[in-house]
Amino acid sequence: MKSPGLPLHSRELAAATVSPRGEKMLKAATRSMAATALEILTDSKLLRAVREDFARTQELIATPRGIPPGPERGMRG
Length: 77
Prior knowledge:
With 77 residues, the chain is mainly α.
């Protein structure tokens, strides 16, 4: 929940999330996430693209600064 004037990860923001507005925003977010999941799971091309992108991201995370290991650094495996 983004609320003008409230810092993220603060007690004030936490309190705002249990308000009627916070509940409304939570419901909207869950519907959006469910719709996205449904779209991905029912479109084989999109699912393949998501899996490929996820794999690339994991490779980048696993290496320092996103630089793949070269012969001088050795390969882990």
